[in-house]
Amino acid sequence: MEEDTDSRKQARLAILELANMISVPMSLNAAVRLNVADAIWEGGSNAPLTAAQILARVIPTGGGDAENLQRVLRMLASYGVFEEHIGGGERKYSLTDVGKTLVTDEQGLSYGSYVLQHHQDALMRAWPLVHEAVVDPSKEPFERANGEGAYDYYLKKPEMNELMLKAMSGVSVPFMKALLGGYHGFQNVEKLVDVGGSGGDCLRMILQKYPNIKQGLNFDLPEVVAKAPQIPGVTHVGGDMFKYIPQADAIFMKWVLTTWTDEECKHIMSNCYKALPAGGKLIACEPVLPEDSDDSHRTRALLEGDIFVMTIYRAKGKHRTEEQFKQLAVSAGFNLFKAFHVDHFYAVLEFQK
Ligand SMILES: C[S@@+](CC[C@H](N)C(=O)[O-])C[C@H]1O[C@@H](n2cnc3c(N)ncnc32)[C@H](O)[C@@H]1O
């Protein structure tokens, strides 16, 4: 093969970029662990700072290596997390819109917890075993690495359970703001159950906007709801959605079906069907895969999340297309279907009994 053509040179570059790509998430994790985003943001100033100035904020007692921090910041700047300002012989860094998603808000939330959640030791142990999901999907890479499934594992480790709750809230609260601005399907609901509702943030936000909902049930595993905060109008209910789902006029479910196999999804959706009256709605918010495999941020975020599900949760759990969700709902008995695209990652899928 000719190795001096431009296309071969580009190809060698591209494969080196892919082979070194682990530096990207691990450096992002480092930046979150060091709390760099809050240090730069400082109440909204977002003034460009040198690595030494950032270091002085993240380690106020002194010490640390500014050059190594700069190496991390520089690389992440090339992925759009920080903006690099070069002048006067110095490199300075401020936050881009992407970097701002890592700033802790007044509720103590950000996307930082989601980054940390993904890089805990137990999850990291599963990643070298992705090929095992191809060879034998009967056992998840996470289970091969850790001896039990992810949810069971988290529940025995209070610190993982708490980080999971915080990560879910950090991702869900901004999405829910977008959903409540663009979707109006809660108008005639009086009793709503959120299945797999985690700490209850989604339900809290829905109830704040829709006072017509007199009763909100946040349904999740007993160990999860035991850690959930008290929320006015919300009753936390511990249980197993594979056994029973509390009755309500409508069921909300966000980011739940994705982690289960087709058979398990049918089972969950059939239990939803049983819990609803005639005309009742299942409102599912899930990542929805496009048909194309292009290199857009949207397609990549969804395809990468698909491999995450395969590796950590269920080897045959998956991100699905709209059509695949529709077929699952029909097999569980639902007949009417509408999709609302209120976000680039999640879609709202409405199924009626
Ligand atoms: C990816 S999280 C989504 C949480 C929340 N809906 C959100 O979007 O922020 C999936 C949720 O399903 C819950 N879950 C897992 N197995 C369950 C079961 N058998 N019954 C009820 N909830 C379950 C988990 O505890 C977790 O809170």
UniProtKB/TrEMBL annotation:
Q: Which GO terms describe its biological process?
A: methylation
Q: Which InterPro entries match?
A: COMT-like (IPR016461), COMT_C (IPR001077), COMT_dimerisation (IPR012967), SAM-dependent_MTases_sf (IPR029063), WH-like_DNA-bd_sf (IPR036388), WH_DNA-bd_sf (IPR036390)
Boundaries of every O-methyltransferase C-terminal domain copy: 130-335
Q: Which residues form a coiled coil?
A: none
**Record carries keyword Cell inner membrane:** no
Q: MF terms per GO, please?
A: O-methyltransferase activity; protein dimerization activity; S-adenosylmethionine-dependent methyltransferase activity
Q: Which UniProt keywords apply?
A: Methyltransferase, S-adenosyl-L-methionine, Transferase
Domain of life the protein comes from: Eukaryota
Is the keyword Transferase assigned to this protein?
Answer: yes
Tell me the ranges covered by the O-methyltransferase dimerisation domain, including all copies: 16-105
Q: What is this protein called?
A: Caffeic acid 3-O-methyltransferase
Q: Which organism is it from?
A: Pisum sativum (Garden pea)
Q: Lineage of this protein's species?
A: Eukaryota, Viridiplantae, Streptophyta, Embryophyta, Tracheophyta
